[in-house]
Amino acid sequence: MKLLEALNWRYAVKQFSEDIIPDTVIADLIRATSLTPSCYGLQPYQIIQVNDRSVREKLLAHAWGQDKVLECSHLLVFAVSTAGIESIVDRYLRQQAHINDEPINALEDFRAYLIRTLGGKSNPQVIEWAHRQAYIALGNLLTSAAVSGIDTCPMEGIDPVGFDQVLGLQSLDLTTSVACTLGYRNTEDMQAHKPKVRFANSDFLREV
Ligand SMILES: Cc1cc2nc3c(=O)[nH]c(=O)nc-3n(C[C@H](O)[C@H](O)[C@H](O)COP(=O)(O)O)c2cc1C
Q1: What is the pLDDT of residues 85-144, one digit of tens each?
Q2: Residues 91 and 39 sit within 8 Å (Cβ to Cβ)
Q3: Tens digits of residue pLDDT in 36-79
Q4: Atom 15 in ligand 1: which residue has the minimum CA distance?
């Protein structure tokens, strides 16, 4: 699908069909999401793919009764690092050294620069900053899915504390940011036929 066609086609699905997205398509969408730009490339987030139905049932109790967490083909939870900026930077630099096949100590000056630039943030501020990065990745996932003909519903209507508990995120130094259900729209989902409510460019864009 062409970009605008895909973005008009997509909507926040309320009711999914029982159809399952093929593994290769999900793998491409995860890869597309991982290609999202982030501040200094640090990617302070991960995605939890919840396959286990019993886990999804537990999550339903923390999803404002939105049973699409059960009915969707795939449930992805974006989780951000709570480990602090040094840990986020070091995780990234290890990967950079690996990808570029260079010793980690060649990146010491860059490390010092990053810590100097970002180290002034308190840990709650780092987490807030990480959430903003995760939302860019969420947007990229939604668009990538739309152009691939895959339906989604981003979900902020969840209790992150409950999600953290069910998914055991605290022990992984992660905390829930936002969820995204993926699958195929149910033909009975009336939401699919509602017109898009968006501001016209003339009310959305201010030129100076
Ligand atoms: C961050 C975010 C969180 C959202 N959370 C929910 C949610 O919990 N449940 C839901 O049904 N829709 C949710 N939505 C969908 C929005 O309500 C929807 O995108 C908006 O009304 C525009 O409609 P459209 O996406 O169908 O064009 C969320 C959207 C975003 C971007």
Answers
A1: 999 999 999 999 999 999 999 999 999 999 999 988 999 999 999 999 999 999 999 999
A2: no
A3: 999 999 999 999 999 999 999 999 999 999 999 999 999 999 99
A4: 12
Mutate to test the pocket of ligand 1, among 16, 68, 155, 189 (most ligand atoms within 8 A of CB): 155
Name the one residue in this structure whose structure tokens are 């999900």: 26
Return d(Cα 134, Cα 126) in angstroms, integer: 12
Ligand 1 centre distance from Cα of residue 178 (Å): 11
Rg of the chain's alpha carbons, rounded to an integer? 19
Q: How many domains does the chain have?
A: 1
For a substitution probing ligand 1, which of 131, 156, 177, 181 has the most ligand atoms within 8 Å of its CB? 156
CATH number of 135's domain: 3.40.109.10
Give the count of alpha carbons within 13 A of 115, CB side only.
Answer: 13
Which of 19, 39, 22 has the alpha carbon at shortest distance from 80?
39
Count how many residues are written for the chain: 208
Phi/psi at 123 (5° precision): -60, -40
Supply the pTM of this predicted model: 0.97
State the distance from the centre of ligand 1 to the C-alpha of 154, rounded, in angstroms: 6
Domain encompassing residue 197: 3-204
